[in-house]
Amino acid sequence: MSAVLPKTSAAMAALLRADFTTQWRNRRSVVLVLLVPVIILMSWKGLVSKLGPAFVLSTGITIGLTAIGLMGYSNALARDRDKGIFQRLRVAPIPTSYIMMSRLAVQMAMIILLTTLVFIVGYQRLHIELPAQSYVLGFLTAFAGGALYLGLGQMIAGLVKNSETVNSTTRLVYFVFIMVGMFGDLGMLGEQIKKIVHWSPWGTVKTIVSAGLQPGGWSNEATVALLVTAAYAFVFSFLGIKWFRWNVK
């Protein structure tokens, strides 16, 4: 008798259920990913009147997106590869593309959760109220920025094979992005560094999110930043897919 292949919808539903269950079981790491941007957001309450609500909110969202792509997605890929989960899934009667689509769906949910949480904290604790259009554009630009950092996480997991090394690498990259990004963006590291940061992955994501949060704030510079963000996401994703191995051998 020939084997009966599962329906596409059933296979995808099973993968999504398993991945969301795994994410729930690792909810402590989820809390840590979301905690840092919230703490920074609340600590910058006094800067809202000086730098503007869009600057403060976009910084919190950008920090969270960096954590999701590096601390969450990249480490999860490396951990499951080390455990042989991907190798077992590949012999199942489902397309390998479904495996990654399911993982990305979980990360998209994380981006929605992060952005919503930042908006809620901004409204409740910082008294920031934006028009509905700004919230919609905020979510859309967060997805664009999230694609960049998920691509970066994919590239690191593809380039580095050992899960412990992936963990240490992502922590280092995360630290550099946060520290150089925040202080460089404020001009505290000199004008030259500020210009470099502005067109780095950190800077382009923050630019488009900030522009989306300001009513009528979208400019030609924001459009260029969006194109650069898309280019970063494409290059990182392309290299990440090219270098990625389903096992550690």
TrEMBL record:
<keyword id="KW-0472">Membrane</keyword>
<feature type="domain" description="ABC-2 type transporter transmembrane">
    <location>
        <begin position="13"/>
        <end position="201"/>
    </location>
</feature>
<feature type="transmembrane region" description="Helical">
    <location>
        <begin position="54"/>
        <end position="73"/>
    </location>
</feature>
<protein>
    <submittedName>
        <fullName>ABC transporter permease</fullName>
    </submittedName>
</protein>
<dbReference type="GO" id="GO:0016020">
    <property type="term" value="C:membrane"/>
</dbReference>
<keyword id="KW-1133">Transmembrane helix</keyword>
<dbReference type="InterPro" id="IPR013525">
    <property type="entry name" value="ABC2_TM"/>
</dbReference>
<dbReference type="InterPro" id="IPR052902">
    <property type="entry name" value="ABC-2_transporter"/>
</dbReference>
<dbReference type="Pfam" id="PF01061">
    <property type="entry name" value="ABC2_membrane"/>
</dbReference>
<feature type="transmembrane region" description="Helical">
    <location>
        <begin position="172"/>
        <end position="190"/>
    </location>
</feature>
<dbReference type="GO" id="GO:0140359">
    <property type="term" value="F:ABC-type transporter activity"/>
</dbReference>
<feature type="transmembrane region" description="Helical">
    <location>
        <begin position="104"/>
        <end position="123"/>
    </location>
</feature>
<feature type="transmembrane region" description="Helical">
    <location>
        <begin position="222"/>
        <end position="244"/>
    </location>
</feature>
<feature type="transmembrane region" description="Helical">
    <location>
        <begin position="135"/>
        <end position="160"/>
    </location>
</feature>
<keyword id="KW-0812">Transmembrane</keyword>
<feature type="transmembrane region" description="Helical">
    <location>
        <begin position="30"/>
        <end position="48"/>
    </location>
</feature>
